[in-house]
Prior knowledge:
The protein is an alpha/beta fold. Helices cover 28% and strands 32% of the residues.
Amino acid sequence: MKLDIAVVEDMQSDAGRLKRCIAAWQPPETAAIGRVDWFKSGEELLDQYMPDAFHLVFMDVYMSGLNGFEMAQRLRMRDARVLIVFITTSTEFNVEAFSAQPFGYIVKPCDEQRVWAVLDNAVRALCVDEPLLPVRSGRAELSVPLRAITAAVARGHAVELYLDDGQVMSCSATFAEVEAQLLAQPRFLTCNRGVVVNMDCVQRCDNDVFRMKNGQIWPIRVRGRAAVVDAFAQYQILRLRGSFRRMGEK
């Protein structure tokens, strides 16, 4: 595969340094660098952005106009699959970054080894087969991509799968069976009795509820609430540090 990359950086010297790091990378046999396009602002990127235009976007956090976190959130609304790596002068993690589902975080000045590690991880993530959940809906046997599931909810003797395109799929399985398969992936969390949420699809946690990007609201159990909120916070921090690959893959 050819890795198409966007560099969003308003400082030409910083953009040049990053592009040199990318050019010096030695990709595995299965990959190669495609195009590397430089954008002086997030607005410039969004003006012409189409879904799947790039595999990876390096986004400077501190730019004139809207900052990198705000631009990344807008980018994520257009493309759920693009990998976003924040570039900043700060070593502190910012909670604003969480909703954009960052793939990584690089501190300036860009270090070759760190950039190469991000590129290596990106290739591995992009080449990973999308995990699927086998389900029976009516008489049909289907395989649902885990990334498309925003929540799974017990409904009587069935389970309703809420999907990111707005559909709700009823499947004939026990909640325990579905829950076990989902919790095998780090992106999923049981937040209440009979409710599992995809943490990649959470807009924010308001102490007693998860507010999802598609407008859904799922309550967090009262007993053990602190543990649920802490698990969500830890997952977001690990994603920001690049400990999880794309869409929560191990």
